[in-house]
Amino acid sequence: MRLFMLSILNKRYNTFFLFFFLCFVSGLAPCVNAQPLEQITDEQWRTDIDFLYEQLLKTVPDIEDRLSEEELQAKVTALKLNLPTLDGVQTALALQEILSLVKDDGCDIYPFQEVLGSKILPLKTYLFADGLYICDASEKYSNLIGQKIETINKVPVANVLQAMKAFSPADNHYFQTYLFPFYWQIDTWLAAAMKTPMAEEITLGVASGQEAVVVYEEVSAYIKLHRQLASHRQLNSVSIRHESENYWVEYLVEKQTLFVQFLAITDNKEGVSFKQFVEEVETAIKTLEVSRLVIDNRYGGGGNGFKLKPFTDMIAENEGVNQRGKLFVLTSRATRGTVLELTSILELNTKAILIGEPTGEGPNMVGDTKVIELPNSRLRISLTNKFWPTSWDADNRSTIVPEVKVDYLFKAYQAQDDPWVNAVLEYEHIPIIIEKTQYNLVKHLTGKYSIAGETIDVFEKNGQLFATSKRRMKSFFEFNTQLYPQEDGVLSTDIENVSVLYKIGANGKPELSGINWKGIDLQINS
Q: Which of 23, 31, 405, 513 is deepest in the core (most CB within 10 A)?
């Protein structure tokens, strides 16, 4: 998937930002013979707008399910009419607003291409559960580090966040809050969102009651800044820093916890390949005293989803760690792309407990980007062009909600405390007790069923009942779960908010009637 989507917690934040900018800046050569945007005529802009409109409809998969074509057409028509009142940069940002209708961050304008001339504040901020804080700053503004921002040009942060959503393409609110600390700091984006003239500086109101004026600078000043979010590339209790690794593993001896972090599902430039890494994790599980396996997907994004199956199968088939209370997956609002696919597959095929924040996109996602260049303005625009499902066609969730919620507060950041890991260590599993009489009834449900276009196999193994569906070509969707008699007509599963439904037939035996999947009723095909 998008390899530049590593992490602004890595995409997207900290090291990801660096990778993000390398793709946006150094990876994109200046446009040949590009005119300044101010010199593009209204007629040329109309040609560019029509070209983008056509490319959107042609390139983005299932776009009709992601937006209203009538709303898209209305936005396009309004922009054409307003062209005489807009300058070149304002027109470009109006295109970004149109792209936001697609609700996917893969459809966006690269913010630091030369023709835009964008600058950014030399600050690193993050939107914690208790507000927007400055985590790092250039030397000139080092006195602001640790300050909570309450107003931006005298406008409350919450209002700026709401306005910025129209210019930050994303699948859901959670990822928009993740992108916010980046986009609000760009002069062109903030001016467009707040409908104010371009400025060379900004006034921040901080919690101490003071105001600070910060001058916009080139993106190079921003790249130099750092922000160490919880356990990003390094466990607090371990001194090793995994700076350039796409995946890594550490063993916490005192906690008997194996901690695996995925930043991208692609081979490291140096060291072990992804395949070898999977073998290393398997060896560690077999040879160490592992009371818990923690799979950290908080800071990940891109890679190759076809590499995942050996890892997910290994975890699912290992009865030592694939148990409730022993297997945990950490999520955040930055969990996206191939690492989101990993998260979804583990949720649907293991007894993993998801801990953290709702993810940055849902289980059925679009990805794999194509870069287009508008014919006159030479603006470079990214469009997604592949569909990667990890759930039913009917599953239109835009996020995966974890079973255990985590709030990341600024004081935890300051102390380099990890509330996700704390939640893992504090988790107490309550075993499910199955009444023998209930099981004797539902074991008659074994057989193959067709539900919503998928073949479901219900079978008995070692005195337990399971349901499974195998993946098809060009899909990562499969699930495997134990079934537990919950109440009359309902079997619970290892998957949060998923139940298998049955009824008693005329012969007195149970008959499968469907599945309630995250609130969606899926019926047996007749």
A: 23
